[in-house]
Specification:
The chain is mainly α. It has 3 helices and no strands.
Length: 62
């Protein structure tokens, strides 16, 4: 069962984009670029990132 976590390894800010990329099997750079475009075009990307940082749990080290 897959779960969505914020990933600290390889992250730039809080690990939201890296966690989403791991969950969907994508390259983190593509997710980051998509998030930047979403932020620039719609303007609500920054708010969405903050909400995701609060809601998505951090990955626990094993």
């Amino acid at each position: 069962m897959k779960k969505l976590y914020r990933v600290k390894e390889g992250s730039m800010l809080c690990g939201v984009c890296t966690g989403i990329a791991h969950y969907f099997g994508l390259d983190p750079t593509l997710v980051r670029l998509g998030w930047v475009l979403f932020s620039l075009l719609g303007g609500s990307g920054v708010l969405a990132y903050i909400v995701c940082t609060i809601i998505i749990p951090e990955e626990k080290p094993y």
